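Run: sequence + magnesium ion -> complex structure.
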Amino acid sequence: MTISVIIPFYNERLQIPLTLDSVSAVLEETGETFEILAIDDGSEDESVEVMIEEAKSRPYLRVLSLSRNFGKEAALCAGLDEAKGDAVIVMDGDLQHPPSYIPEMIRLWREGYMVVEGVKSFRGKESRFSKGKANFFYKLFARFSGYNLTNASDFKLLDRQVVDEWTKLRERDTFFRALSAWLGFKRTTFPFEVAERTTGDSKWGGLKLIKLSINAITSFSARPIYAIAMVGMILLLLFFILGIQTLVTYFLGRSIVGFTTVILLQLLIGGGTLFSLGLIGIYIGRIFDEVKDRPRYIISYDSQAESKDTGG
Ligand code: UDP
Ligand code: MG
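>> structure
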């Protein structure tokens, strides 16, 4: 039985050796055969060079480098496609997912669980604002999709069979956390404390998070479209009531009073239309993205391909 560990890195030059050291130490102690797939997500610093250097002294390390920054989701997809293990563990490269939980994950897998998921029992030293943001997002996501992901994380172990099903999913924009729940299978969770980052900063800017949230919700639910229909119905009802009122004042010869109503209606309908158009646009944009059927990522370097293929 082989364990694969997938770790995405984006501009983590200083962090890479530390992470590889502690992950490999834990894995060696378990006595399992293992491989580590370090995925460089198009880093702009010397992350790839550091990885390749590390691979020289670590035969279990495979380095994959994406041709540009495709985002963590794409990096995970690359890892899941390439991993060969009977169980595949996915974890962050900044040690915020403590490797010390790995033996426990493997134990649960050996007990027969196909998916072993880390649940954040302590979100680390996150700002109140950031916790609030995450909470708001998960509430929204649960309401729309029916999947409660509060405190869910990307720290997971998947059985080979689950990984094989994952790689069959055709959508381009993935949301690992939720899609792995959608896949089903016998699953269990374990609580873990998010460790603090020791080097570098979080790679998630506000804009990236907003994009991820919108993608996550629209890829899991068509409810916003139904909501548009509801809003439209309510607007029609308002139309009807205000229409009668306007006509009545018109026949009473006090039509100038209705000017306020006109303005209100303008605002309401204009706003409603624009909002709805925007929402529809998001869905059409997603269809556009999926229809193009582009690859999720492009690998520009693979440390294992090198020995076989010298043609470059
Ligand atoms: N990451 C990545 N591509 C990106 C952003 C992040 O591969 O575009 C990696 C990053 O190097 C780290 C993991 O994803 O290993 C989690 O990122 P980060 O720690 O910045 O996220 P946070 O812990 O703040 O959620
Ligand atoms: Mg982190």
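>> summary
The beta strands are 2-9, 33-40, 61-66, 87-90, 115-122, 152-159, 187-193, 299-302. Residues 223-291 form one domain.
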